[in-house]
Design goal:
It is a single chain. α2 crosses α4. This protein has an eight-stranded mixed beta sheet, with helices on both faces. It contains 14 helices and 16 strands. It is of the alpha/beta class and 438 residues long.
């Protein structure tokens, strides 16, 4: 009887499930494990019903009773383990087991206070430098609006021929503007390149501690992403490079009005590449080649859910725009979008036979079953209308036109984009300001 039992246990131990049990005995019953692994079949002798042993062995001789109980326990544990594993497997099929680092984050932003007459507005340069002449002209425009401009301590710096100071100096100006309680808003002087260098130098906590409006576009899209992740709304809008022209154009005055509490509600004409539908979500994005490299960083606002994604670009080839969009697609960003706003694609390539960049993107986005609003004048064109990043918005795209509305506190101001005109800026100037041409 003992030999049969021993043989049965050894056979069962040879299959994959019982190997686990065998290891359990090795840990919790080492003497039994040693006896069973060293014993030889031809030397088993049964002394009585309660003891078995190996003639030459020195191991402690466990009782048959222990053997029977342990065997039963081991198989019960194995069976329960199998049931548990099967249950967990079925449960995991229904539950999200994505690592925390890959899970969407909550984008829930507060609105900074609107400005009033006499409020201080900081002028800083987080990316490329702009001339002090432009900064001074912008300061004059702000004074004409009843605001008090203050210029960042390092705005006049130039490093490596392009940057507005070192990384430390540019970060220092941001912190100076954030930490001064008398400063109520921040306007960036220029984009270009450089904000990606600042991502790990700032913390989301310090950005959230004192919410205030930050205004800019292009390379400033990185700062919009940081602020959205920190939980603070910001304004995708014009900067000193354009405000210095006088501040009387529609782009500048609408940005001024927004800072003072007049929230635009945009009405647009129909666009042949529109995809109809209605959607609400949080507005994120900006310049495509600026925010796409930020995926996975703390400046990645596309990591949120229920997104309305703004995309604009300047001076890029069609194939590079397609490449950036494929990166967003492969990282699941497009799957998290409720709707998309295509802004200006200024001076972009035409190497493919698509009618336009919008036509190429329409072809990519048509199967997502989300509305796509094309031709919104935001970006590097002659008209760059202000948008509130991190704000809850609703887009309604119809066959006869489209509407973009911000669902935030403020005086609603209807803006018919069809009525807007602006003088043309030479392409070379646009490209230079964007940092894509000398």
């Amino acid at each position: 009887m003992l030999q049969k039992a021993h043989y049965f246990v050894r056979v069962v131990a040879n299959n994959s499930i019982s190997l686990v049990v065998w290891r359990i005995f090795r840990i919790f019953a080492p003497n039994y494990y040693e006896t069973m692994t060293k014993i030889s079949y031809n030397k088993i002798q049964v002394e009585d019903r309660n003891v078995f042993y190996r003639e030459a062995g020195s191991a402690k001789k466990p009782s048959i009773r222990f053997f029977n109980i342990a065997t039963v326990v081991c198989f019960v544990l194995t069976f329960c383990g199998m049931i548990t594993l099967t249950s967990c497997s079925k449960e995991n099929d229904d539950n999200d087991i994505t690592p925390d680092s890959e899970k969407p984050v909550l984008i829930n932003c507060v609105k900074p206070d609107y400005l009033k007459a006499g409020d201080k507005v900081a002028l800083i340069s987080p990316s490329y430098f702009t001339s002090m002449e432009n900064v001074e002209k912008t300061a004059a425009v702000l004074r004409g609006w009843g605001l008090e401009p203050v210029v960042g301590p390092n705005v006049d710096k130039v490093t490596e021929g392009k940057y507005a100071g070192t990384v430390a100096e540019r970060v220092s100006d941001i912190r100076w503007a954030l930490n001064d309680p008398s400063i109520k808003a921040i306007i960036c002087n220029r984009g270009g390149y450089g904000t990606i260098q600042l991502i790990d130098q700032l913390t989301l906590a310090e950005l959230k501690e004192s919410p205030k409006w930050l205004v800019g576009f292009s390379d400033i899209s990185t700062l919009h992403g940081l602020l959205s992740r920190a939980g603070v709304m910001s304004i995708h809008g014009t900067m000193s490079s354009f405000l210095a022209k006088g501040g009387t154009d529609i782009t500048s005055t609408l940005m001024r009005d927004l800072l003072l509490g007049n929230v635009p509600r945009y009405e647009l004409l129909a666009h042949k590449q529109n995809i109809v539908g209605t959607a609400s979500g949080v507005l994120v994005g900006g310049n495509l080649c600026t925010f796409t490299p930020n995926l996975g960083s703390q400046a990645d606002a596309t990591k949120g859910n229920n997104l309305i994604l703004l995309i604009e670009e300047v001076g890029e080839s069609m194939h590079n725009i397609d490449r950036q969009m494929r990166i967003l697609q492969m990282n699941g960003v497009l799957d998290r979008c409720k709707g998309i706003i295509l802004g200006e694609f200024t001076d972009c390539g035409t190497e493919f036979t698509y009618e336009s960049v919008e036509a190429m993107l329409h072809d990519m986005l048509k199967d997502y079953d989300i509305p796509v609003l094309c031709g919104f004048p935001a970006g590097h064109g002659d008209v760059n209308l202000p948008l509130v990043m991190g704000a809850p918005v609703t887009i309604d795209v119809r066959n006869d036109g489209a509407t973009l509305q911000f669902n935030i506190e403020g005086n609603q101001q209807q803006v018919n984009i069809a009525d807007i005109t602006a003088p043309t800026t030479p392409a070379a100037v646009r490209m230079r300001l964007a940092g894509k041409r000398e």
